Structures are given as C-alpha cells and as structure tokens.
C-alpha cells in the first residue's frame, strides 16, 4: 500500500501522525509526506519519502494577514480566522502543488490531520480514500462549522465532491474529550505517543521525584511560543521556589538569551519530548496538545498557561480531568504562577488524576494495531 501524508507543515500537526507513519512502514507499506522544504528537515532520519509541495507556515501567516485583521495580543484565534488559515489560505497556496506531486507518486491512500484540507481535496481529485489523524479533542461547534463552511466553498470552487474519511485515528484519551463528542464511523482510537527520534524505542517515562531533596519542574513552551520575553519572567519566578528547574529552548533561543543564575536552571536544547520527561514531577507548559498528552501519559500533572491556537480548549479539558491547573493570559502574575506550581507539587490529587489519565492512555491501541486495522479497511 502506498500512503501519502499531507499534514499542515508544523510540528504540532506533523508529530501526532508520525507513530502511524512508522507503523505503516513497519508493515512494509510505502510512505511519503508532501510538504515544503522545511518539512524535509523535520523528517530527517525517517524512513519515508518527502515530496516537495506547498509552502511554509510564515508564508501562510503572511497571506492570512493580508486577508483578515489579526489580533495583536495572544489569545484564541476566532473560528472564522482559523478556518481561513487552514481551509482557505493553505488550500489556495498548496493544493495545486500537492495534487501534481500526488499524481506523480500515485498513492492508494491519503492521510492528513484534523486541520488538513489539502489532503482530502487531493484524495477527492485522485479518486482514492482519505484518512484522518486527530490532533486531540474534537473542536467546539463554532470551530467545526467555520471549518466545514470554508472547506465546502473550496470543494465547490474546484468542482470536487466532499467525502467522509475512510477512518479517523483518534489520539484523544476519553478523559480529555469534548462533552459533545460523538463517535464517528470507522473510529480507530490510537494511543498518543511522546515524540521521539526515529528508531528510538517507545519507553514510558519514569515518574516520581528525580532528586531526594527537591522536585524537578520542566518548563516548555514548544517550538512556536517559547519567546525569551515569555519565558524569562516565568523562569525568574520558578527559580525562587526550591525546585530543580529544566527549561527547553525551542528552535531558536539559546541559554545566553536568559539573564538568570545558571546554577539554578538547566537549559535543554530542542529535543523530542520523550527525552525530557523522565524524573519530572511537574510540567509548566503552554498547553500544546503534544506536550500535554505526553506529560499525562507519564502521569505527570501540569500547570498550563495557554497562549493561542487550540491550547485554551486543551487546558480546559486537562483542568476538568483534575490533572492540571491553568492561568489565562492576563492572569499569569508572578504570584499566581507560584501559587499554582506550589499547589500542583504539594497536593496529591493532581498527580492522582494525572495517573488516571495515564492509565486511560495506556489502554488505547498502539499505532501498530491501528495500522493493521487500516490495512483491513483498505482491502
């Protein structure tokens, strides 16, 4: 089977699909990803082909800014604006390139993520099935309707018929799913995996106190949201507590960018989250789904400071599950951050709730089982 992945070219969209892509390769299926040159850099070491097509996130963002007024302050993107980004701008800038590359490559199946509208349209144009990998919980109704309406207009414009996916591989554990979620047809629950380098084994993070004298706190805001001006005040506040603080630097920052006592903080270069969680007692994060799910899979509670995208709804569900505490933009004062970190480290209920979510995640089918189910669907 020849499987073409067409995810949005950003790590938060790419990484949730990699376990399935690796599992398909383990079956000796032929796998390719279509995307801009930057995607090829992210795929270094993966046993897949990369077809150059489409454009990078900065180009998509620039075009979106030409089409709509964007808010200047951090916050949740309005549903119509988000729909214009994924179902409008990206389709307009990437569909033709991706379709041409797909025609040459001749896939039997196209797979994308929840926000990918290029892939299903390419599949419709080629007359092949399309499958979906979720990014986490179901979108709220306003977002779903905005995406549906904008995508429908793109199908009409190109004379294509929209079809239901052949399957939906869903990485969301039950405790974090939206209240109004209804099981779709050909629903395939799939255990979310902490991102790891190609070939590294899937090894659960060890939990529990890393040092006998003080807890370890991991501060990570992913690859897009970890600006120095965002992390610096958080670092200054956390080092005032008696903790062993580790900070991830994202893709661009260096330790020298932060004017803090280097004896109190360990800066970690960008690394897969699977390499950072062992021995961690608490994760302080922007509530990216990948980071949140990875921490909870290891039974680690979180303090969440959502900045944008779907991070607000991810944080909502983690708080509802009892496994996290949250501060919204404007609420994250130094005293507030310190109060939540202290509570998460000293009150056992947060770790107990995180352990419950970890059990749910462990009970979900692994990507290897999902790949076999997809093979049966495709027969």
TrEMBL record:
Pfam families: EryCIII-like_C, EryCIII-like_N
Positions of the Erythromycin biosynthesis protein CIII-like N-terminal domain: 96-222
Domain (Erythromycin biosynthesis protein CIII-like C-terminal) ranges: 234-374
InterPro entries: EryCIII-like_C, EryCIII-like_N, UDP_glucos_trans
Keywords carried by this UniProt record: Transferase
Entry annotated with the keyword Transferase: yes
Record GO terms (molecular function): hexosyltransferase activity; UDP-glycosyltransferase activity
Spans traversing the lipid bilayer: none
The keyword Transferase is annotated on this UniProt entry: yes
Official protein name in the record: UDP:flavonoid glycosyltransferase YjiC, YdhE family
Annotated source species: Lentzea xinjiangensis
């Amino acid at each position: 089977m020849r499987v073409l992945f067409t995810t949005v070219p950003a790590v938060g969209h790419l990484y949730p699909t990699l376990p399935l892509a690796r599992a398909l390769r383990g079956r000796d299926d032929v796998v390719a990803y279509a995307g801009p040159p930057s995607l090829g850099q992210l795929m270094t070491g993966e046993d897949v082909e990369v077809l150059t097509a489409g454009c990078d996130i900065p180009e998509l963002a620039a075009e979106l800014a030409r089409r709509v007024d964007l808010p200047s302050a951090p916050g949740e993107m309005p549903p119509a604006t988000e729909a214009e980004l994924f179902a409008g701008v990206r389709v307009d800038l990437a569909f033709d390139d991706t379709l041409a590359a797909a025609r040459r490559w001749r896939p039997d199946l196209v797979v994308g993520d929840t926000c990918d509208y290029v892939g299903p349209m390419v599949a419709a144009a080629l007359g092949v099935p399309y499958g979906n990998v979720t990014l986490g919980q179901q979108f709220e109704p306003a977002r779903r309707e905005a995406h549906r309406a904008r995508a429908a207009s793109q199908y009409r414009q190109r004379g294509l018929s929209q079809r239901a996916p052949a399957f939906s591989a869903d990485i969301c554990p039950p405790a974090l799913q939206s209240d109004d979620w209804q099981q779709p047809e050909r629903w395939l629950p799939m255990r979310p995996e902490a991102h790891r380098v190609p070939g590294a084994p899937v090894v659960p993070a060890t939990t529990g106190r890393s040092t006998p004298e003080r807890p370890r706190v991991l501060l990570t805001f992913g690859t897009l949201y970890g600006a120095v001006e965002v992390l610096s005040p958080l670092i200054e506040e956390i080092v005032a507590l008696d903790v062993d603080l580790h900070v991830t630097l994202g893709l661009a920052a260096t330790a020298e960018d932060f004017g803090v006592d280097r004896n109190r903080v360990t800066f970690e270069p960008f690394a897969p989250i699977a390499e950072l969680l062992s021995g961690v007692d608490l994760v302080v994060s922007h509530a990216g789904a990948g980071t949140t799910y990875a921490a909870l899979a290891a039974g680690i509670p979180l303090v969440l400071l959502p900045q944008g995208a779907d991070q607000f709804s991810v944080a909502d569900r983690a708080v509802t599950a009892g496994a996290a505490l949250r501060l919204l933009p404007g609420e994250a004062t130094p005293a507030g951050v310190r109060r939540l970190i202290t509570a998460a480290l000293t009150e056992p209920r947060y770790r107990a709730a995180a352990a419950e979510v970890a059990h749910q995640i462990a009970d979900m089918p692994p990507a290897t089982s999902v790949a076999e189910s997809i093979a049966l669907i495709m027969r």
